[in-house]
């Protein structure tokens, strides 16, 4: 997931190959979406759909900047020529808006030629790596079960060689959560500066999912008790996810502030400052982050690519109207309107806003539905880091760099900013 500002405008994720991928990662929630299109053989976005998507996305976007996010499946399967076409189609619109492109990839197909293109055209790349080889290979592998770790690491080096802007997206599955510092130190040693940790949460299929030919459960209903709470064997344990983030935070806040940027911590800082969330899962409402499939079908969210959440098709329908309908409908408002009473009185509500609705299948001790699977974990993490974030905000407000926090906490947790040298450098 590559994030954008959800406070304003529209955010769309394009799936130009649909769910087609050259890997078969155990925990991938999108691979099975192919079963929703049984009559399609060629999963490739056509020129007609591509042109309509670019035109309608630019013209529907109320903000001065439009970010095109290309995901999959694996979008690099389409080759460089497809993305050359993307850039060419976007050219006439660059006088109207500032246009940016982001590409999420598994990193198995990148070459010097690819990276030169990405650098020349200012693509931001999201590279999927879960950590060192034994962690990465646990759930990420080719269709025959083979390791692709060497290919991914080669791609990381190529991105660095060509100075392509990139971040790493690391999925936190059950086993990974027990090795936080192994993961963090690996990325640090490899020179990765921007990291996003994504918890893996999936449930075994319910009856409706099975009827669609799917292997994972449909999203939670929020306002109704969810009978199916059985998670997959790779799902992160709720109590361990907070421990994972806290262990890394403790290391980062003492040694790496201003040098390594961990999106999970940046989001929390953003919330503590009082800004709107830059990521949908921690936004107050849903409905402004849509997914566009290879045939032009538009869905309310890439985690909600199911027939019930199809909004229309980019070839025939107005994107702005589809997004407005999604935001103003039960889907968009449902996230906040169905928050349990426990959440509404929670002191970290503004940091999480209940989390992603797809994963709100737990319930309170009193049986109220709509609680996020990671509720206890989120609460523990946000409470733990709050005093550090308050200190960082105080530093930044006085014109000092956030990195000064390291001088205060390297030895002790008793944060004392009075003895830190007052510099005018701003992060």
From TrEMBL:
Entry keyword annotation includes Iron-sulfur: yes
Alphabetic keyword roster: 4Fe-4S, Iron, Iron-sulfur, Metal-binding, S-adenosyl-L-methionine
All residue ranges annotated as the Radical SAM core domain in the record: 6-227
Cofactor: [4Fe-4S] cluster
Family matches, as PROSITE patterns: RADICAL_SAM
GO molecular function, one term: 4 iron, 4 sulfur cluster binding
InterPro entries documented for this protein: 4Fe4S-binding_SPASM_dom, Aldolase_TIM, Anaerob_Ser_sulfatase-maturase, rSAM, rSAM_sf, SPASM_anSME, Sulphatase_maturase_rSAM
Transmembrane segments: none
Range of residues in the leader sequence: none
SUPFAM superfamilies linked: Radical SAM enzymes
Similarity annotation: Belongs to the radical SAM superfamily. Anaerobic sulfatase-maturating enzyme family.
Protein name: Anaerobic sulfatase maturase
Protein source organism: Candidatus Auribacter fodinae
